[in-house]
Amino acid sequence: MAVKIKDVAKKAGVSVTTVSRVLNGEKYVKDDLKLRVNRAIEELGYVPSQIARSLVSRKTNLIGVIVPDITSNFYSTILSSIEETASSNGYNLLVCNISEDIDKEFKYLTIFKEMRVEGIVIMHEKINEEIRTFINKLNVPVIFSSVKPMDQEFISVIIDDYQAAYEATEHLIGLGHERIGFIGGDMRDITSGQNRYSGYRNALTDHKLKIVYEWIRFGDYKVQSGYDMMREILRGKQLPTAVFAVSDDMAVGAMNCIYDHKLQVPGDISVVGFDGSQLTELVRPRLSSMEQPIYEMGSVTVGTLLKLISAEGEYDSGGDIIMKHRFIARDSCRRIVNP
Amino acid sequence: MAVKIKDVAKKAGVSVTTVSRVLNGEKYVKDDLKLRVNRAIEELGYVPSQIARSLVSRKTNLIGVIVPDITSNFYSTILSSIEETASSNGYNLLVCNISEDIDKEFKYLTIFKEMRVEGIVIMHEKINEEIRTFINKLNVPVIFSSVKPMDQEFISVIIDDYQAAYEATEHLIGLGHERIGFIGGDMRDITSGQNRYSGYRNALTDHKLKIVYEWIRFGDYKVQSGYDMMREILRGKQLPTAVFAVSDDMAVGAMNCIYDHKLQVPGDISVVGFDGSQLTELVRPRLSSMEQPIYEMGSVTVGTLLKLISAEGEYDSGGDIIMKHRFIARDSCRRIVNP
Question: pTM score, two decimals?
């Protein structure tokens, strides 16, 4: 038979209400009562039902997380960091992998509401009007991690994507490259799509280099699309000497495509990625990449969310939280000597 | 103001109990009452609190999942499949990433109990006596996915690791290799450690090939350990012409080590992996590997768990569920012509 709260009360010689108050960590419970209750709990091996307790305290200690694709190394790394920070603060995760399916997202947000999560982390930026309205009505803090949806008022934990893409492009320019291709992301996304593309274009323009549309393609951040877009670029009349892809996954896809065409990285074409995921060290040659502080983004996301939860709307993060990026040169780029 | 159950009752002209019975899907509620309640729910936009409902019905629709390492492609792929199957059956996941930390596992199992999960999936095989006892007392179904802990009575969804490793080794023997190294897993694990090692050894012995201990090392399934173990093998007096690593991650680590030593895969050393994860197609040359049906293992795990949950102990899976493995030859092995 499972030990019940009334057994604890009997053992401790107090009322059920007192046990409940101790369990909920309420102030103004006399120390000797606390001691007796905790001793009884220990002796009986009582595990309080989180469900019953949350009905009283309204605390569920749950955070809902929406991940676009859990099999991506980038997202699973953020997720592992979110999990670690949440767990060390006594919070548990309801994890939802939506596979980029907006309908599934709506369903999960409804479940989050039912389960009374205390906060929500969303890791993709495609939200529609219906979802926006729903989130606004939810009355729990919501943070976007690593992305920023268009025209909206939620807090995002991101890097300066424009500046990071600008610097990644400048790295190639600094190595003497003048013909630099680009594999971008979805242009409906502000952070990873639009801002990174602008950074690339402006770096070229500022250095008086031509923008060649034959070398510019847009994928979906995944390996296969990097491969496919690179194949299109390789079909052109003249090849670029370098390609900048806005995700490490696409960069690896591009490298594989170059390899399968019997060309060399970086001998024939240099490749730069974006994210700084584990992939960069996994492939050969190692991939030079613009690093996002992936792990830190996860912990900062949860840290901020917990402040918002405990402040009940009174905490002001001062808008988006911008994390630091840094370029890590590995072995996928070579220096070019121009005539 | 949030819509409450009593608002629904008022609107539908029924008692709160009736609304509650409809919400819990109980039989013997008159159809016209059901209709009125459901119409009122729809009109008011009422979302029942899962917490309140679960106190009545004892159904939480939660499954607890313990993952050893969420950033591994192998586990995140099983997890995404588990998530998909659970979700399409109306179940949600509490996901716990334990980073191979047994203490953390115990903590999470306690949380699972508090949250009244209806079933548990565990994806690693190192469980101690304390955890075994705790699980046995939990009174909810537990399934091990992709692993089998030693000496225990829980159901596992696995492949025949011995046979799969035997066949992977035979693939190399069939290509003419006689000097075949091995990078194994933790020998405390039955499935991935012991059984795969036995399969390798017996394949060699059955084909009258020598077991050379200089070419046998044990890692922890991760990329870095594959790299490190390969480095040790490369320090030997004579090199093997092929290496079989019992995870794709370790196989890729081994390939990278070979590359960094200015040797060729498969020109100098052929490499075979195990798992059939996405990595196999991501690296160059593509990795030949013994494939586990990773995605199917996730869905079969949840399918079996749901049967156990709904049968309340009456369902008998007939022991472990053995899934089919198959070898996929890619580009990392070459044929050897022996003198």
Answer: 0.82
Question: Best-predicted range by mean pLDDT among A41-55, A95-109, A259-273?
Answer: A259-273
Between chain A and chain B, the number of residue pairs with CB atoms below 8 A apart is 120
| CB contact A8 to B (< 8 Å) | no
Least confident of A258-267, B44-53, B166-175: B44-53
Tell me how many domains chain B contains: 3
Q: Of B49, B83, B99, which is closest to A116 when you measure between CB atoms? A: B49
ipTM confidence = 0.79
Do residues B153 and B301 share a domain?
Answer: yes
The verdict on residue A336 lying in a domain is no
Q: Which of B97, B104, B116 sits opposite A80 (nearest CB)?
A: B97
Q: What is the mean pLDDT of residues A268-281?
A: 96
Q: Test A95 with B93 for CB contact under 8 angstroms.
A: yes
**Position A306: which residue type?**
L
| Each residue's pLDDT tens digit, B205-233 | 999 999 999 999 999 999 999 999 999 99
CATH number, position B256: 3.40.50.2300
Range of the domain at B275: 161-292
* pLDDT at residue number A211: 96
B142-145 sheet: strands from edge to edge = A321-323, A155-159, A142-145, A119-122, A62-67, A92-97, B92-97, B62-67, B119-122, B142-145, B155-159, B321-323
A76/B84 CB distance under 8 A: no
